[in-house]
UniProtKB/TrEMBL annotation:
Gene3D superfamilies: Electron Transport, Fmn-binding Protein, Chain A. This is Pyridoxamine 5'-phosphate oxidase family protein. Keywords: Coiled coil. The keyword Coiled coil applies. Residues 43-139 form the Pyridoxamine 5'-phosphate oxidase N-terminal domain. Pfam families: PNPOx_N (PF01243). InterPro entries: Pyridox_Oxase_N (IPR011576), Split_barrel_FMN-bd (IPR012349).
Length: 203
């Protein structure tokens, strides 16, 4: 079968642009080569998504405008239900409901999950189903254990994914990601300060 993301992303207009700019031959294999996969979550994709503390999601309004929103949580807030399904608990926010309204109109969603320290990026396309938390308490228990108000469960059936090229991804670190390096530096600084104090006492 063709690479799933190419079936979605490589529209006639995109293929025409690839042809005009000389990359059509390179990407043509994605539309015909059975060796390429990309519609079922494997161990690598599952581990990557589970480790994330957030991702960007895009929806489209009935007027055709795209809307991108950040969804965040502690690592593990995205749950892998099976090799075609992921889910997360959607907490009460500013109550604009732009993404919710868009996805009620068209349930197609696109996600980009970033790993800045390691310059990795996973793109995912899927279809959303909203679930009332009270109607599926077992699933809610898998997704949520805190005190926040869960307005809905967002369950996504994966249509395709693609590991994006790392080129041009900047390396950025959260404080938690920096902590091992900072701890080493603090320990070394303490050692140097102790050595310095000892040398001063000797003089």
């Amino acid at each position: 079968m063709a690479l799933a993301f190419a079936d979605i992303a490589f529209t006639p207009s995109v293929r025409a642009e690839q042809d005009r700019r000389g990359s059509a031959k390179t990407y043509g294999k994605f539309l015909s080569d059975e060796r390429w996969g990309g519609d079922r979550i494997g161990p690598e994709e599952a581990a990557f998504l589970t480790d994330r503390d957030g991702f960007f999601q895009a929806s489209t309004s009935e007027t055709g405008w795209p809307y991108v929103q950040f969804r965040g949580g502690t690592p593990g807030f995205v749950k892998i239900l099976d090799d075609k399904t992921i889910a997360y608990a959607d907490y009460r926010g500013n109550r604009q409901y732009i993404s919710t309204g868009n996805l009620a109109h068209s349930n197609r969603i696109s996600i980009i999950a970033m790993d800045y320290p390691n310059q990795r990026r996973l793109k995912l396309w899927g279809e959303v189903e909203f679930i009332d938390p009270e109607e599926d308490p077992d699933l809610l228990a898998q997704l949520h254990s805190g005190k926040e108000i869960v307005e809905r469960i967002v369950k996504i059936t994966v249509s395709a994914f693609d590991w994006n090229c790392p080129r041009h991804i900047p390396r950025r670190f959260t404080l938690e990601e920096l902590e091992p390096e900072l701890s080493t530096l603090r320990d070394r600084l303490a050692e140097l300060e102790a050595e310095n104090a000892q040398l001063k006492r000797q003089h």
